[in-house]
Specification:
With about 325 residues, this protein is an alpha/beta fold. It contains ten helices and 13 strands. α1 packs across α7, α2 runs parallel beside α4 and α4 runs parallel beside α5. Bound molecules: uridine-5'-diphosphate-4-deoxy-4-fluoro-alpha-D-galactose.
Length: about 325
């Protein structure tokens, strides 16, 4: 079976490609390398450098390769940037997906697994969050991801297309094989930023806000290992292949950790004191985000393997220690 992975040179995309190839799938990758890395591309995957907004290019890939299903990670994904440059998000995320769907429909490719986000919910009504809860994004990134979900929905009513949308909570960690990991430029995520301290790239970690209504005043998040996310994409593709109907699933561990708890766990893993400074809140951060992933467990048979925060941080630490500049210096 041949899977087209859009954004397969990015963080979650590259981990999914490694898992797909380990399980015997043939993989074709499309990535424009705007935020992905050539070095993150699995050596056994067929790689095309190009942009999903380019219809001719996408048509040529579907014509050359016999594609059975698509896994779609190709999108801009920084909350802060989406507020400064919303049109970039409309162009890359929405226009890109529109062109992709036109090309898929024209080439009779009828299955797509799509990377969505907890940011589609905005400020949650209930904890843990279930898939039927209100979706009211508080940033443009989440808004475009929600619109992409709706684009799949309406297209699936008009054409023979089925989709699975996976709403991830806080993706983190690195592949235990040590070959791939998280590398963003600029880095904005908590765990890689914390690990820059023991890696001698930063003097201290800033803790954004200490007056939230949580047990220690810092924000609570649901951290989920990237390999567990990768497995969920494969299960979702199998579900569609078995005739499953279009659906949306949350992906998280169902356990929340405060920012201070994450810093503490990183201190234990790295055996470094990791100084921290409490600063102002970061605009737009919800206080608590925890997923209910019962639906993914029940319907897809998903079982996260990395339940312990320290284990997750340990995989990240091994990657960052060995690759302090990500893929850039290699
Ligand atoms: N944080 C700090 N200091 C830092 C960086 C982050 O205290 O230097 C805090 C944040 O305020 C937040 C928590 O650590 O409370 C996690 O922040 P991240 O930036 O790592 O992740 P977010 O929860 O902001 O974002 C994640 C995904 C987004 C997604 C969002 C949904 O990365 O793609 O969840 O709300 F949109």
């Amino acid at each position: 079976m041949r899977i087209l992975v859009l954004g397969g040179a990015g963080y979650i995309g590259s981990h999914t490609v490694y898992e797909l190839i380990d399980e015997g799938y043939e993989v074709v990758i499309v990535d424009n390398l705007q935020t992905g890395f050539r070095k993150a591309v699995h050596p056994e995957a067929v790689f095309y450098e190009g942009d999903i907004r380019n219809r001719k290019f996408m048509d040529s890939v579907f014509e050359k390769e016999h594609i059975d299903g698509v896994i779609h990670f190709a999108a801009s994904s920084q909350v802060g940037e989406s507020m400064r440059d919303p049109l970039k998000y409309y162009s890359n995320n929405l226009c890109g997906t529109e062109v992709l769907l036109e090309s898929m429909v024209a080439h009779h490719v009828d299955k797509i697994v799509f990377s969505s986000t907890a940011a589609t919910y905005g400020e949650p009504e209930n904890i843990p969050i279930v898939e039927t809860d209100r979706t009211l994004p508080t940033n443009c990134y989440g808004e475009t991801k929600l619109s992409m979900e709706k684009m799949f929905h309406w297209t699936s009513l008009a054409h023979p297309l089925r989709f699975v949308s996976l709403r991830y909570f806080n993706a983190c960690g690195a592949h235990p094989n040590g070959k791939i990991g998280e590398a963003h430029n600029p880095e904005t995520h908590l765990i890689p930023l914390i690990l820059q301290v023991p890696n001698n790239q930063r003097e201290y970690i800033s803790i954004f806000g200490n007056d939230y209504d949580t047990k220690d005043g810092t924000c609570v998040r649901d951290y989920i290992h990237v390999n567990d996310l990768a497995q969920a994409h494969i299960l979702a593709m199998k579900y569609l292949c078995d005739g499953g109907e279009s659906s949306i699933f949350n992906l998280g561990n169902g356990v929340g950790f405060t920012v201070k708890e994450v810093v503490e766990a990183a201190r234990r893993v790295t055996k470094h004191p990791i100084p921290a400074k409490e600063e102002e809140r970061r605009a737009g951060d919800p206080s608590t985000l925890i997923a209910s992933s019962e639906k993914a467990k029940r319907v897809l048979g998903w079982k996260p393997q990395y339940a312990e925060l320290e284990t997750i941080i340990d995989t990240a630490w091994k990657w960052h220690k060995a690759h302090p500049d990500g893929y850039q210096a290699e």
